[in-house]
Amino acid sequence: MSTPSPGSLTDPWDLFRLDGRVAIVTGASSGLGDRFARVLHRSGATVIAAARRLDRLVALAEDCGERVEPVACDVAVEADLERLVATALEVGGGRLDLLVNNAGIGGPVAAEEEPFEDFRRVVDVNLNALFRLSQLAFEPLASDGGGVIVNVASMLGLVASAPIKQAGYCASKGAVVNLTRELGCQWARKGVRVNAIAPGWFPSELTSDMWNDEASMAFVARNCPMARGGTDHELDGALLFLASDASSYVTGQTITVDGGWTAR
Questions:
Q1: How high is the pLDDT of residue 145?
Q2: Which of 83, 153, 156, 184 suits a disulfide with 196, CB 3.0-4.6 Å?
Q3: Sheet with 98-101: strands ordered across
Q4: pLDDT tens digit string along 157-181?
């Protein structure tokens, strides 16, 4: 990547372009991940779209037409992560510019009833896999002197979700927020910026039951200062800002996009 020289004045829109860059997006088979892959692609990037459901990734690639490489990947499996990075480097001719750690799981359950193996699985996918993939991607990201990692956290990594009960999810996303700070500071002088997006209530597979339930949506409207949940395009700007040279002096930060939920 390159950044404008000191004192230069360029077209501000150019800062958000990703032409020629190679990006990995995990959890790209549905919801926010599918949207993120499309946004990065439309901004010029070659996208390595990763998820367990290969058929959906193939459909995504066909829809985009070019510069999208589908890769079947379970982020909780070490060999899959290694293969994902290797594929990205092969497709990119040895280059990797951006990693979007979006894959995540979770579901409502009372803490006293949450099976420990389920808690462990949530932490493995949402936190441990994110860290391991970031490790594997670090050297190629750093080699170009301007690599970027964007972690997808959650506003529920900043505040409790109760009365919706999901201890494993909140714990893992809270850890992602602080891991973002730590990696952002550790890797800043090594040429890799690390930031996060913390979405509020957005439609996704994880929240499909809520979005299809009138009482749940009334709960969101009643408690959100903007009186509604988010729509998918309202994360596009935050993603492009963090993924591009527009945020070249930003690292270790989490941008919360939640309609004011955490500001109450």
A1: 75
A2: 153
A3: 68-72, 46-51, 22-26, 98-101, 147-152, 192-199, 254-257
A4: 999 999 999 999 999 999 999 999 9
